């Protein structure tokens, strides 16, 4: 739709206070689509992407980590999605309208087929969100939708989402990859597996069936996942390349070498220390953008001595974040003073901040009963940036008498151990994918989400819970912002995390790739990617 049409729709939104949209396409078109040339191949080819770990699950309701979400976002559609302007746009729902304080109406597209030929309708949509919210299924993205009390089928192509309280960020939550829609057959197979005592996510993980512009082709666990173009895709445009293969290459230097030699066409993430190498390479370029991700040092608040806020504050105070930015990520990022990145709704400059002060940190440790420090272990994964970060924190904490041993595991084991509370200190990151502070705070710090759902510090604090609950229910933006500010001040006092930095999203790309676009969340969508041949 042209700009004039979008403006008319925006005026309609303002007049009616309804959520509508300016486009019928499932993903935004690339700004490079119109580039032509005699020596360019605009469509076709086999896109090769290097990723750092095997996806946890190809069931979009069974994982909530970057590699899984990035792959799944290309096989499945959501009811709505964030476009390139980070605004809500229609996906499988032609419209999503709030028709009451606690009621949202979604009008489902007609004539949309899944990759297995089955039909999308309101019953399928209801079954998806019932499954995500089913505690027996145990979805790690259930927290995204736990405010929904019921999904009602109104007719074949209309559903109502009833929420426990007014919840303004619902469209943003529905746009998360965790809101992806799988086929009814996949849902039925999931419950059959559950009845047999098997993992409910196994059937879809082994045979993913969505409605997306790519469909599942093949997988070799630990090595690769291959998708092929869905020729019967419901949207206005098909994917440009024939296939996409996600190659699992854990070592980042190996991924860079493969990028330089043409073994892969792009890779994400890129270690900041390798950014200059890619930028200056004759056959590669760097895609860099602000991110919504926050890297942190976490404390297991249920184990001694980290059950004492003074100890946590002392460690937070002993960390030289500017030194970490320069030494670990080559200055590619922003120092983090709070859990919410600057581009996210809920960010505030007016929050209490813990600043670097080594002498005060020593005093706090003495007050807590540890004048000479103590030994501890730091859990991390085997990413090179995390290794460098762990070593720098190890050194900085030694300056206040804390002797840190580093426990390093591959990513899947790391996630499991952190989620199970098998840690004392741990390094992690959290991206506010929805661009709304609710996602940046509620799953990470509310006591109802302790463990693998997001609250890996296991913090339980009544005032914090109440503030986060109230912020979810507030309908006034200024009220929500004030509640988030207060919540962040409680977090500064309690310090379940020492916030470190907001890293830029960095992808390495070969020159023949055009149309690649990454979101602040770090996810990328590949419908518009083309491979040109000189």
From TrEMBL:
- Origin species: Halalkalibacterium halodurans (strain ATCC BAA-125 / DSM 18197 / FERM 7344 / JCM 9153 / C-125)
Query: What superkingdom does the record give?
Result: Bacteria
Question: Where does the signal peptide begin and end?
Answer: 1-26
The record's listing under CDD domains reads: PBP2_Ylib_like (cd08499)
- Any keyword Ribosomal protein? no
Recorded GO MF terms: peptide transmembrane transporter activity
Q: Which UniProt keywords apply?
A: Signal, Transport
Instruction: Give the family, as the similarity comment puts it.
Output: Belongs to the bacterial solute-binding protein 5 family.
Gene Ontology CC, one term:
ATP-binding cassette (ABC) transporter complex
Q: Which GO terms describe its biological process?
A: peptide transport
User: Ranges for the Solute-binding protein family domain?
Assistant: 87-451
Does the UniProt entry include the keyword Transport? yes
Q: What is this protein called?
A: Oligopeptide ABC transporter (Oligopeptide-binding protein)
UniProt-listed InterPro entries: Peptide/Ni-bd, SBP_5, SBP_5_dom
């Amino acid at each position: 739709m042209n700009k004039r049409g979008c403006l008319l729709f925006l005026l309609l939104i303002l007049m009616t206070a309804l959520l509508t949209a300016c486009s019928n396409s499932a993903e935004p078109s690339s700004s490079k689509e119109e580039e032509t040339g005699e020596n360019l191949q605009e469509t076709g080819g086999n896109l090769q992407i290097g990723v750092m770990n095997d996806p946890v699950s190809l069931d979009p309701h069974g994982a909530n980590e970057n590699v899984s979400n990035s792959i799944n976002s290309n096989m499945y559609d959501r009811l709505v999605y964030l476009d390139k302007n980070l605004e809500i746009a229609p996906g499988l729902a032609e419209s999503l309208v709030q028709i009451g304080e606690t009621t949202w109406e979604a009008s489902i597209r007609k004539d949309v087929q899944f990759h297995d030929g089955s039909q999308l309708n309101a019953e399928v949509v209801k079954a998806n969100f019932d499954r995500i919210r089913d505690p027996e299924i145990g979805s790690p993205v259930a927290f995204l939708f736990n405010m929904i009390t019921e999904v009602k089928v109104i007719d074949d192509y209309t559903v109502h989402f009833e929420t426990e309280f007014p919840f303004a960020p619902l469209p943003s939550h529905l746009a998360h990859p965790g809101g992806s829609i799988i086929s009814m057959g996949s849902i039925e197979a999931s419950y059959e597996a559950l009845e047999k005592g098997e993992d409910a996510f196994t059937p879809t993980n082994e045979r993913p069936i969505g409605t997306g512009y790519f469909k599942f082709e093949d997988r070799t666990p630990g090595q690769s996942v291959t998708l092929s173009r869905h020729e019967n895709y419901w949207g206005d445009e098909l994917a440009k390349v024939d296939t996409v293969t996600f190659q699992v290459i854990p070592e980042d230097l190996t991924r860079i070498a493969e990028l330089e030699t043409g073994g892969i066409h792009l890779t994400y993430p890129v270690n900041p220390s390798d950014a200059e190498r890619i930028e200056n390479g004759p056959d590669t370029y760097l895609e860099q953008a602000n991110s919504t991700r926050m890297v942190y040092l976490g404390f297991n608040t249920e184990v001694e001595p980290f059950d004492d806020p003074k100890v946590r504050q002392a460690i937070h105070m002993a960390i030289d974040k500017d030194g970490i930015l320069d030494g670990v990520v080559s200055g590619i990022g922003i120092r983090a003073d709070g859990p919410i990145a600057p581009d996210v709704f809920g960010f505030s400059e007016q929050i209490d901040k813990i600043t670097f002060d080594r002498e005060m940190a020593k005093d706090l440790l003495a007050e807590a009963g540890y004048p000479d420090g103590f030994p501890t272990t730091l859990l991390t994964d085997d990413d090179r940036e995390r290794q460098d970060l762990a070593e720098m924190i190890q050194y900085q904490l030694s300056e206040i008498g804390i002797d840190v041993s580093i426990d390093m595991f591959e990513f899947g084991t790391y996630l499991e151990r952190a989620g199970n509370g098998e840690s004392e200190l741990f390094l992690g990151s959290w991206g506010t994918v929805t661009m709304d502070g609710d996602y940046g705070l509620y799953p990470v710090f509310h006591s109802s989400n302790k463990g693998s759902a997001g609250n890996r510090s296991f913090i339980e604090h009544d005032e914090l819970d109440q503030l986060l609950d109230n912020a979810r229910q507030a309908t006034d933006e200024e009220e929500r912002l004030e509640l988030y500010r207060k919540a962040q001040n409680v977090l500064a006092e309690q310090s379940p995390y020492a916030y470190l930095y907001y890293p830029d999203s960095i992808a390495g790309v070969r020159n023949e790739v055009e149309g690649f676009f990454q979101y602040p969340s770090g996810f990328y969508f590949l419908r518009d990617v083309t491979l040109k041949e000189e």
